[in-house]
Amino acid sequence: MAFSLKDLGLVDRVYPLQPSGYIMALDSGTTSVRAIIVDEYGCIVAQASKPVKAFYPQPGWVEQDPMEILASQIAVMMEVQFKSGIHSDSIAAIGITNQRETCVVWDRDSGQPIYSAIGWQCRRTADIVDGLVFDGCEESIRSKTGLAPDAYFSATKIRWILDNVSGAREAADAGELMFGTIDTWLIYNLTGGEVYATDYTNASRTMLFNIHTLEWDDELLAMLDIPRSMLPEVRWSSGEFGRVSSEIMTHMPLIAGVAGDQQASFFGHCCFEPGDTKNTYGTGCFMLMNTGDEVVHSSNGLLSTIGIAEGGRISYALEGSIFHAGSTIQWLRDGLGIIGGARETEEIALSVEGNDGCYLVPAFSGLGAPWWDPGARGMITGLTAASNRATLVRAACESMAYQTFDVLRAMEADAHHRLGSLSVDGAASRNGFIMQFQADLLGIPVVQTEAVETTALGAAYLAGLAVGYWEDRDELMQNHAVGERFEPVNEPERVAHCLSGWHDAVARTRTVVQ
Ligand code: ADP
C-alpha cells in the first residue's frame, strides 16, 4: 500500500489545470529535492526545491527520513505547477533522477518503511564488507558488478536492516518486504503502489546486479543472504514506468525516464560517445567517462558502471566517486559554524593569497576513489598561529579540486586517453575560485554547462525521448550549450607544490597502505 496525499499532509494543495507541452523532471538529491519543468529547447521554465534533512546517529552513520523525501518531492511537484501555471495536462512525461545507493526497505502491505533510509555515505556496514572480502568474494563482486566491495553500495545496507531491525529477516523471508533505491520508493508511491521498478543505472549501484547479463545476480544475493522477492523489476532508463496517480496529478502523466543522478547528469551533458567525460560537484564529486559497449575494469581504483541505458543500447562508464565535496562546505557551515552559506566561500577563499600550506582532507566517512579506504578519517594539516577562518575555507574549497585531480589522472590511466577539457556541473561548480583552481591543477580548460540543473535535464531527456517529445539524441545535442570556460594558468611549480602538500596530507589519513 502506498501513502495518500492525506497521509502526507498535502491534501489541500491541489491546483487547477492549464494546457499542454512540457517535461517535468524530479531530482531527488541528497541535500534537496527539486521539481523542474523544461521546454523543448531544454530550457528550464520553472522550478521548485526543498531541502531534505540528514541525520548522523553515530559517527560515520548517515540516515534520512523516506517519508520526508516523499512528502517533499510531492510538495515541490505541486509548487512548480502552481508557480508556473503549467499543470498536469501540459506535462508530456515525467523523468525521475535520484541520489543513488541510498536504501529504503518498506512493508509490502502497509507501505511503511521499517527503518530510516540508510544514506549512500553511511559507513555502518564496513564490517559486513570486510567479511565479504575475508570470505574471498571480492573478485566475484568486482567482475559481476564492476564495483569495489564497499559499504557505499546498497547491498550491505539491506543486509544490515535484515540483521538489525526486529522481525525484518522473517518478514523478508516471507516475501513481505520491498527494497528500493530512492527512485523505486518514489515510483512506487507516485503510482499509488502500482509499479515496483527501478532502472539499469540505479540497479548497477546496488552491488547485487550483474552488469553483463543485466539481471539481479543469484550468487551475489546468496552471498549477502538477501531474498530476491524484495527486489524491484529492472527496466531501461527511457520507457514506460507507469502513470502518476490521479490523486497527485489529475491528468496522470507518465513516468517515462529514470536514472541515478550521476548517470542522468552524464546524459544531460550529452556524453554519448566513448571518451566523453563529465564531473559533477555536488554533495560528493562524481566523474564519469563513457567507455562504449565495453566494460573497462579499472586498475586504478575506479568503478565500472552502467552509464547510459537508453534506446536499447547500454553504454558503460568508468566512474570515480568522491564521497565528500560540497558536503565539506556544509560542514564549515553546520559543523564549525564559520560560514553563513556556501555562496560566501568563493569570496573568502579569494581573500587569501594562497593556502599557506594548509590542507583539509575530507575523509569524513572514509576515502572513495581512487583510494578506497573506509577506515580513513578527515584531517587538517599545516595549521599555524596565522591560520584563520579563510585558511580553512580555502582548504575546503581546494580539497574538491585535489580529489578531482586524483580521480581524473586515474581515469586517464585506465582509459589510455588524455582529456582535452573537463565538462562540469553541480552546485559547487558555480564557485569560480574552485573551477579556476581546478583548471590550474589539471592544466586543461574546465567548462561549465550552461544549465546548472544538468542532472534534472538528463532525466527530462530520458523521459522526453521515450514519449517522442524529442526525436533522438541528435536533437538533444542541439540543445546542449556550454557556459563559462576556465583556462589554466600555467604555474607548474606552484601546482607541484600544492599537489605534494595534498598527497602528503592524504597519506596521513590512510589506514590501508597499498
Ligand atoms: P546534491 O544533488 O548532491 O544534493 P547539489 O548539486 O545541489 O548536490 O550541491 C549541493 C552541495 O554543493 C552542497 O553540499 C553545498 O555545500 C555545495 N555548494 C553549493 N554552492 C556552492 C558554492 N558556491 N561553493 C561551494 N560549494 C557549494
Bound molecules: adenosine-5'-diphosphate
**CATH level 4 superfamily of the largest domain:** ATPase, nucleotide binding domain
Structural class: alpha+beta
Fold-level CATH name of the largest domain? Nucleotidyltransferase, domain 5
Largest sheet, in brief, is: 7 strands, mixed
Radius of gyration: 22 Å
Number of helices: 16
Overall spatial form: globular
Mean pLDDT: 93
Summarize the structure.
The protein is an alpha+beta fold. It has 16 helices and 23 strands.
Overview of the molecule:
The chain is of the alpha+beta class. The chain folds into 2 domains: 5-10 and 18-261, Nucleotidyltransferase, domain 5 (2-Layer Sandwich), CATH 3.30.420.40; 269-449 and 481-514, Nucleotidyltransferase, domain 5 (2-Layer Sandwich), CATH 3.30.420.40. Helix content is 34%, strand content 22%. The protein contains 16 helices and 23 strands. The strands form 7 sheets. Strands 17-18-16-15-21-22-23 form a 7-stranded mixed β-sheet. A 6-stranded mixed β-sheet has the order 3-2-1-5-14-13, sandwiched between helices. A two-stranded antiparallel ribbon has the order 4-7. Helix 10 (326-334) runs antiparallel to helix 12 (389-415) and helix 11 (344-350) packs across helix 12 (389-415). The protein starts with 21 loop residues before the first strand and ends in a 5-residue tail after the last helix. Residues 11-19 have low confidence and may be disordered. The structure holds adenosine-5'-diphosphate. Residues 29-32, 282-283, 326-327, 329-330, 342-343, 345-346, 426-428, 430-431 line the site of adenosine-5'-diphosphate. Adenosine-5'-diphosphate binds next to helix 10 and helix 11.
